[in-house]
Design goal:
- The protein is α+β, with helices and mostly antiparallel strands.
- It has two domains: 114 residues, 2-Layer Sandwich (Phosphorylase Kinase, domain 1); 202 residues, Alpha-Beta Complex (Aminoglycoside 3'-phosphotransferase, Chain: A, domain 2).
- The protein contains eleven helices and eleven strands.
- The protein starts with 8 loop residues before the first helix and ends in a 5-residue tail after the last helix.
Length: 327
């Protein structure tokens, strides 16, 4: 059998689809109902069944444990119950929210299913009203997280790992794969980010975040803006969500930041002292994405074929972020 890392994306997806056939019957979903969406950190499908549409998410090994995924789903369930538009986890017929997927030759760990959120990805359509709405959505997520009594055993990534102060084996391996030019410039950004996060290490500065709330993880829906893809959920200083949301804006960055904060302040006050680090933390987010792409290229031919161009683009973005001031 051909090694997983050498398979084209289409072949990897085909193997995953085949492995799902029996498992999805536990949710009342047939393999023939699956429409492929994306194959990156996870592999996702849209399932159209007689009782509605669903998102099927297949996790890769080594990223999150089943315990961590169950904790993510616990937060999503409570967010949904409080009227925040987001994917609602769906249990199997016997009440399980997460099932392991352990099939020889398939690089996968476990599976969960969500009700499909019908909407349109925001993407590059970033006018003032939309960005203000994203800020308000972020504020609602933070307000809920700050007041939520988490269930016993809640298990999500701690802030030292989330911020990179305690690097994982994966990020360390990806760092060694970077071109020398990137390592040199990114090391300076890393040191500055570590100083910033060290100054934000007090418990009052840290909360449970979406942690990936960029505009492709926000949908326009009939019920307003919805946040999707909570797979990176974890603990970090609140400003981390702002850095993620701002990292890929290609124009009018400072003006858009003000719109974002206008929306946020409709819900709650943002801790202003954290924002003085925003330029550095945006650059550090871009470093993190570069490391992610570099690591994924080892086992994903889609990223491998585009790696040099993606790395070059990220380096340019990081340089630009350091040149701006957000007030």
């Amino acid at each position: 059998m051909k090694d997983w890392a050498d398979l084209p994306v289409s072949a990897q997806v085909k193997r995953i689809r085949g492995a799902l056939a029996d498992l999805l019957r536990r949710w009342g979903i047939r393999d023939t109902e699956l429409q492929f969406i994306f194959h990156g950190e996870n592999t996702t499908f849209r399932a159209s069944a007689w009782r509605g549409d669903f998102l099927v998410r297949v996790a890769r090994p080594g990223y999150h444990t089943i315990s961590e995924t169950r904790s993510e789903l616990a937060w999503l369930t409570d967010l949904h119950a409080h009227g925040i538009v987001c994917p609602r986890p769906v249990a199997t017929r016997d009440g399980e929210l997460v099932l392991p997927l352990d099939v020889p030759g398939v690089f996968a760990s476990h599976v969960c299913v969500f009700e499909w959120v019908d909407g349109t990805i925001v993407g590059r359509r970033l006018g003032r009203r939309t960005i203000t709405g994203i800020g308000e959505l972020m504020g609602r997520l933070h307000e809920h997280a700050a007041g939520w009594k988490r269930p016993r055993g809640f298990d999500r990534t701690g802030w030292l790992v989330m911020t990179g102060q305690q690097p994982t084996a994966e990020t360390q391996a990806a760092w060694k794969l970077l071109p020398a030019e990137h390592r040199h410039e990114f090391e300076a950004i890393r040191r500055a980010a570590m100083r910033a996060y060290k100054s934000l290490s007090h418990p009052r500065d840290i909360g449970l975040l979406h942690a990936d709330l960029h505009s492709r993880n926000v949908l326009h829906t009939p019920r307003g803006l919805a946040a999707i893809d909570f797979d990176d959920t974890g603990f970090a200083p609140w400003v981390t969500d702002v850095a993620v949301a701002s990292a890929y804006w290609d124009e009018r960055q400072v003006e858009r930041f003000r719109w974002l904060m206008d929306g946020y302040h409709r819900v709650r006050e943002f801790p202003a002292h954290q924002l003085k680090h925003l330029s550095t933390l945006i650059a550090w987010r871009i470093v993190g994405v570069t490391l992610w792409v570099t690591g994924r290229a080892e086992s994903n031919t889609f990223f491998r074929a585009r790696l040099k161009a993606l790395q070059a683009g990220m380096l340019k973005l990081a340089r630009g972020a350091l040149e701006r001031e957000y007030r």
